[in-house]
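OP here, attaching both records as promised.
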Amino acid sequence: MNLAIDLRMATGNGENSYAANSRLQVWISPLYEKAILETRPVLQKAIEEVYASLIISPGSKMVVSDLGCSSGPNTLRVVSEVMGAIRAYCREQEAEDEEQRRLSVEVQFFLNDLPGNDFNLVFRSLDCYLEKHLGVEEEEETSPCYVAGLPGSYYRRLFPCRSVNLFHSSFSLMWRSKVCT
């Protein structure tokens, strides 16, 4: 069996889609919320450390990859968590150049899943999600944010060496059987 081809979700957002029918998504949602709350301090600290190391170099880019993103209700949650942590970090800074610091680092997200994932559904919902959850319409400016899909199995190398600042995975690393180098 070829896992990258044979093990995939039903695409779309229709009556038979994964996004609409996954009992695991619905069942995990409360667990996911609990996991987010319990791991948020660790995630926030990691985000702050990476961001702080990057703001000293103007024009820097923070690259975040969400492994096993799927195409359900929780797909863009990591984007929201990372951008929220960056906004909170910037508010805590008391430097006079806070606005420049906040805008000095661009954030690039790679949403990874198997090639059968419905990335079209993810990207159709992206603009609405960003406005609703990231306050894009608010007057408070935030770091520029870019989102790209990266189909492929994380059983093989997905990125060049040292090209990602932060990897995130929720409920997908249980599928790992070995560490790839």
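Record two, same layout:
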Amino acid sequence: MSLLILLSVILISLDHGASGVGSDEVSVMEGDSVTLNTGVNTTRQDDFRWYYNGIRIAQINGDINKTCTDVQCNEGTERFRDRLKLDHQTGSLTIMNITITDAGLYTLNIISNSRNSSRNSGKIFNVNVQGVSAAERDEVKKNKGESVTFDPPVARKPNDVMTWYFNETLIAEITGDQSKICTDVQCKERFRDRLKLDHQTGSLIIRNTTNTDSGVYQLQIIIINSSFSITRVKRFNLSVIAVPGSGDIL
């Protein structure tokens, strides 16, 4: 057991009655948003405290005046710069637009107070952040009339939610065993049955591309785990080029 994990266990166990300490490995990509779940609902008697490498970064309890995140918890500490979000119903912590320097141990300490006793429980999340190279931010060029396939960066799992956007407009979605393509009139008129969604992989296919298909295609993936969830965004910048000699304007 590493020193940081040992210190985190001690932190949770400082008060009497500590129990339920568990550890989860969380692997994310730079730029992802990740939610670390408590697995419970808050009550006015519960006190939820989140620590990053032993430093308190968030707290919530029945007294709204004692709720804090990042610099509010520790004056002069601005590591996360408004990128932390607390769920007031569950106490779960979301780290938005995660960076490599956010990697480390996130420790949850739950103090449950009752009339006659106090009980501690908690969780430990070991968060690893992988950098994203420029090569992974795809620039795609196609000749007019060709087909193009945009593949997700990860294999799709049954619980994942995948949503595709074109220039920030929703064009396709997979949720569980259900999928939808072009549910609004504007999308149907633009693509005219040229979109196809691979339900197994989540890949988006555009057939017989036209100049008006050029733009930014964005895939949002919500990866759901029992202890945490990850929101990942992948962007493809498509340029459709007129074929020389076709009579199209270059």
